[in-house]
TrEMBL record:
One of its GO terms (molecular function) is antioxidant activity. CDD domains: TlpA_like_family. It comes from Sphingobacterium olei. It holds the Pfam family AhpC-TSA. The lineage of its organism: Bacteria, Pseudomonadati, Bacteroidota, Sphingobacteriia, Sphingobacteriales. Residues 532-689 form the Thioredoxin domain. This is TlpA family protein disulfide reductase.
């Protein structure tokens, strides 16, 4: 600043400069104040705590939730629920909290919290908690509140929870479904402050929230994070008294998150030295196995070495959450033994493994080898016959419990899995004409599995015929009919038996057949059909027949037309052919009904492929070829025009057309030829009876 002089002219200039500087300073101060206000406004929690009473809960206060739905999307809901997200002991948990409308028109609920709860959030919704019809999460900003102790001080975990609630990527689970989309990033200084506060408050417990804290720091530090993480880890590792769990936590983070191989190796060596037989050493050893190696001998050696160092018998004495390690090890080792044709070692594994692991080994190796003829049937029989009794003996070991929410679901899965393994073995025994053994395994099937699989039912028919056990054939056929799991040959056999018992009179056969189907089965079929009625225009078409002629909409006039879209590469399509043949035969003399098989989405000489396959298998179909789309040169012109109706491009796909409109549409194949025939027959008869 100029000092005033005695010279008047000089003084004029000096005061003018002073005036300008003051004005600049005023403007700068205004800008600084505005920026400060802006930062202060932005560096605040986004979430709203006004739905919680008290607003600043502490100690053992019961937490009240009061929600005013007026002028919100849930205003007219007659059942508002609360999805509760609780941060307790550094873990997020979700629960459902019912709400009741009080006299003031507010939806209310009460929540008791434990001393370990540091943060509570809530989302209001109507319907299912996982797929709500309507929800309110404060327009993506959230409803939440941090809890304090009896003295009003923040609880351990509160600051980290506050950060994670607004940046769910920090959370190690539990916030799933709160936001419809990831919230926008928060002010870094605000997040940095939360991290610093949590470290001051809970630093000694860092292992409980280590990964979440590091994610928060990564969000704040950006490119500077790797250096920070390495320095932090080195600081923690300087503690010579770290226990096994602490070293394990630091190892996993360094190895899989930070991907610092040098530091991970250092931690690994310390673990192996200080805790060579511990759970962390077991995990490290598992991580170092060579399962991904292309050298099978190396794979086998690494797995065998692991089991020598950490035998499953020792783990079972003090089991922890590392059961997945043995599941993976035995699966990898068993498959390697099988591929290397070391079948004696493969069989020996079944002395140690549980049902879940043994089932997977048999599914992947025995079933695959049987289906694709990878191993001679005699050899496959020797291996399967050695392991299947061991698998059956362990069927009640509850090894599937960890995969399901309750025991009933686990048991149902276990029975289904064993039925599938028995199916493969019975099929193999039938191929080898070992009928007596095959029949023995039939009795090991579950009650549902005995008659619900049409293909297995036919195999059991062949077994009974091979044993010349005529007394058991009719009960098998009748039980299969009750389950609606019949093949064309089974129908033929049942009809032959009926005619023999009724002096060749078939007048009552259809009534007898209908009586075998339970009312439950009929109701289920009607319910299924009712779900698949549609009303969609059938696109114009000109499709080539296998005989070279062409079919157009005019040929379908006045008829109910069943169309099966299929391809030679589609296994479910081919598996459904026996059911389609039953339908074709049933309506062969009905001039009001037509059935067409339309080959689609095939390549190369698709016409010859389709015709040769169908004729080679002995099917008697009206075979059409889907037209080629000139825009794409793909053989899918008609099928692709119907995708808006189908919703996807999967096959097999059945449609029923009447008066130029698609009236019925279903996809997939249930596995039962008779069930497929009954489904489409019900559709045809229903359309016939329309006014």
């Amino acid at each position: 600043m100029c000092m005033p002089h005695t010279d008047k002219d000089s003084c004029t200039c000096t005061f003018s400069t002073l005036k300008i500087n003051i004005e600049v300073m005023k403007k700068q101060m205004i800008i600084i104040l505005l920026l400060a206000v802006q930062v202060a406004l932005y560096a605040q929690p986004r979430f709203d705590g006004s739905v919680f009473k008290p607003r600043q809960p502490k100690g053992a206060d019961a937490l009240q939730i009061l929600y005013d739905a007026r002028n919100k999307d849930l205003e007219f809901s007659d059942e508002v629920k609360a999805a509760l997200y609780v941060y307790e002991n550094f873990q997020w948990k979700r629960d459902l909290l019912p709400m009741v409308k009080n006299a003031d028109g507010l939806w209310a609920a009460s929540l008791a919290v434990t001393p370990q709860v540091a943060f509570v959030a809530v989302k209001f919704f109507q319907g299912d908690i996982n797929q709500p019809d309507v929800f309110d999460n404060n327009e993506g900003k959230g409803y939440g509140v941090a809890l304090a102790d009896a003295k009003g001080n923040a609880k351990t975990g509160a600051y980290l929870a506050e950060a994670a609630f607004q940046a769910p990527g920090i959370a190690t689970g539990g916030l799933y479904g709160y936001y419809a989309e990831e919230p926008t990033p928060l002010d870094k200084s605000y997040m940095e402050g939360l991290a610093a506060k949590e470290l001051r408050l809970s630093g000694k417990q860092y292992l409980k929230f280590f990964e979440s804290l590091m994610k928060l720091q990564q969000l704040v530090l950006g490119e500077e994070f790797p250096a920070y993480a390495s320095e932090t880890l080195q600081t923690y590792l300087a503690d010579k008294n770290l226990g096994e769990d602490a070293l394990g936590e630091l190892y996993q983070y360094t190895k899989f998150r930070l991907k610092d191989e040098r530091l991970a190796t250092t931690i690994e060596m310390r673990i192996m030295k200080e805790f060579p037989k511990g759970a962390t050493a077991r995990f490290v050893a598992y991580n170092n196995t060579k399962g991904s190696s292309s050298d099978r001998a190396e794979v086998i050696a690494s797995y065998e070495d692991f089991l020598n160092r950490f035998p499953i018998t020792e783990w079972r004495k003090q089991p922890n959450k590392q059961g997945f390690i043995y599941y993976a090890i035995y699966r990898g080792l068993g498959s390697s033994y099988f591929d290397a044709k070391q079948f004696d070692k493969f069989v020996t594994l079944y002395d140690d493994i549980d049902f879940r692991t043994g089932n997977e080994l048999m599914r992947w190796n025995i079933m695959r080898a049987y289906m694709f003829k990878l191993v001679g049937q005699d050899t496959l029989y020797q291996v399967a016959e050695a392991i299947l009794p061991k698998l059956i003996a362990r069927k009640d070991d509850d090894s599937y419990l960890n995969d399901f929410d309750d025991k009933a679901m686990a048991d149902a899965n276990r029975m289904k899995q064993l039925d599938d393994r028995l199916f493969t073995h019975i099929s193999l025994l039938n191929d080898l004409k070992k009928y007596k053994e095959a029949r023995t395994y039939f009795y090991e099937l579950s009650d549902d599995g005995k008659y619900s699989n049409a293909e297995l039912n036919e195999i059991n028919l062949q077994v009974l015929e091979g044993l010349d056990d005529g007394k058991q054939i009719l009960p098998l056929l009748e039980m299969s009919a009750r389950q609606n799991a019949m093949t064309p040959r089974m129908f033929e056999k049942l009809r032959t038996i009926y005619l023999a018992q009724h002096n060749g009179d078939e007048a009552g056969y259809e009534g007898y057949l209908g009586s075998l189907k339970s009312d439950e089965q009929k109701a289920e079929m009607k319910a299924y059909v009712d779900q698949h009625w549609v009303n969609h225009p059938m696109p114009d078409f000109q499709l080539e027949h296998a005989d070279g002629s062409f079919v157009t909409p005019a040929d379908w006039k006045g008829k109910i037309v069943v169309v099966d879209f299929w391809a030679t590469w589609c296994r479910p399509c081919i598996m459904a052919f026996p059911g389609m043949q039953l339908l074709v035969d049933k309506y062969a003399t009905d001039e009001a009904v037509a059935v067409y098989m339309v080959g689609t989405m095939q390549t190369g000489d698709y016409k010859s492929k389709s015709v040769n396959f169908v004729r080679g298998e002995g099917y008697r179909f009206n075979l059409l070829h889907d037209a080629v789309n000139p825009a794409t040169n793909e053989q899918d012109l008609v099928f692709k025009q119907l995708i808006p109706l189908f919703g996807d491009s999967s096959i097999p796909r059945k449609i029923v057309v009447k008066d130029g409109r698609v009236r019925y549409c279903s996809g997939g194949y249930s596995g039962s030829p008779s069930k497929l025939m009954d489904e489409l027959s019900l559709v045809i008869e229903t359309l016939k009876n329309e006014n």
